[in-house]
Amino acid sequence: MPRLGVRAPVDPVGVTGDGQVRVPEDPRRVGWYRFSPPPGASAGSAVIVGHVDSDRGGLGVLVALADVRRGDRVLVERSDGGSVAFRVVSRRTLPKEDLAESGAFRRDGSAALTLITCTGPFLPDDGGYRNNLVVTAVPASK
User: Which UniProt keywords apply (predicted)?
Assistant: First the structure.
């Protein structure tokens, strides 16, 4: 996210034992959900997840999503050396239980990039946050 000065290594991630998207433990890294289309695919939503913070590593790289604005560019460098540019079209907060049905994980339709992190309030008894912050971006015109 050039405007925000955010750069992070991307790791392919799968699911946890209870079926949730696995998020990289290191809050300075993000994960591409490998069951979603890759960034730059012609259809569906490529999903990238990361921590907002961590009790082991301080603030996470995706804490910056709170400052993302409509029109911001997101650049994804692919493993083949190419890169794909996206333009932010929305930022919304969803209860975690609504994320699966939100369309964030769709595998068809127009191409998009979906960035997901946690957002408040923090629930100490649950060890996590109540909501997800979901940023949607579409391929940027050249």
Answer: Hydrolase
Residue 142: what pLDDT?
53
- Do 116 and 104 touch, CB atoms closer than 8 A? yes
For the stretch 80-107, pLDDT in tens is 888 999 999 999 999 999 988 888 999 9
pLDDT band at 128 (very low <50, low <70, confident <90, very high): confident
Rg (CA), the chain: 14
- What domains can you pick out in the chain, each with its CATH number? 2-139 (2.40.260.10)
32 to each of 123, 125, 130, how far by Cα in Å?
26, 28, 22
Contact between residue 33 and residue 48 where contact means Cβ atoms under 8 Å apart: yes
